[in-house]
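Write out this protein's structure.
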Amino acid sequence: MWQKLLFMSVVNILLSIFLTQNIHAAGKGWWSTQGSKIIDEQGEEVVITGINWGFEVYRQDEKGWLDNSTIANYKSMLLSMNKFGFNTIRFVWRDWQLENDCVFQNINNNNPELEGLSCLEVMDEVIKYASQLNMRIILDHHTLLASWRKSPKLTENWLKLAKRYKNNPYVIGADLDNEPHHTQVCWGCGNNSDWRLGAERLGNEILKVNPKWLIIVEGILGIDLEVAKQYPIRLSNPKKLVYSTHVYPGMTYGIPFEEVESAWDKKFGYLVNENIAPVLVGEFQLVNLGQMEWFNKLVNYMKNKRISGTVWAWRWGDPKYSDQSWYVLPPIEKNYLTISNDQRKPIMRSWLVKLDPNPGYDPLPEESADANGDGRVDGEDYLVWLNNFGKNKSGPNNGDFNNDRKVDGLDYIIFVNSFGS
């Protein structure tokens, strides 16, 4: 009997060591690539499981707005993204948002701390808080009206950003141009319309200024990467290249459901299957809840192949459903329709990956919503928060659960997320 117990004890110890060594977070330092993997400074594999958010991109008259800043505080939104488990934000920006006359519009006074800041300074604040939350940032040049060829300041603006954030390891790379397009765009044709050549020039210019960044190159219209096998992107440092695609249901329209994975393999998955380069699914989402089977298949496809992704897109919703509000239907007449994500939560939560913090950047103090120190988060703790709401007090015992010396809505979100624990 004792021999059996001894054997089981040894097995448990060995299993514990194995799990500790092989199942852990990664992400420290600056990232590079190795075959089809993204790796951190220590050579550990990293998987991006993030979300899209940033400056409003669908209306030109909203150039000074953060998406949803008219109805929510930017820190509240970042904190909710972080609490759900997203490890990265694909932060969208457009050229005019880097101009000196782009000033943040604090409509409805939800973001008084951003009042009067330039759009670039607002980006600084977003990145600073996201870094404190241990979230990585991919900067994405996002334009719907013109291609890279019609953006005369594109290189200038990218170099400005590359220099500005070169010392922050939480800003991990540049998504050079969203869904590159114009009437004669091509890949590998060798003329002035060749996005492959344009991406190489732009990527190499960025690497001269910031050699630590990943350079993310989308296929034409954000879809087609088939030609990358014959005409690969050639960077000065090949270990900084990540290809990117966008995946929506219409991409496989007319293809039998049982064949969609083969279609994805052909379009972009081969880059991973053949250990050529990493792939980031920079945008993915369904159009209606009738496509849940398709959505589950895509997320499982990404999980099984260790493909990184950033879901489209963050939208603020009813605070009662703060962890459900990032699922949306595509814009309808310039408006969004937020829908419930109850059916998508399980598959998305199973996909999320945690990242290690970076040394040299202090994380936020540990957040606790247990105001009275009784080991439970309940109604008594809520009353402490309520009685001090709006006051400049510090510490969980005063309802300041995030230790920012203010008792406000951010502390309430922490309470809601911790209630019952």
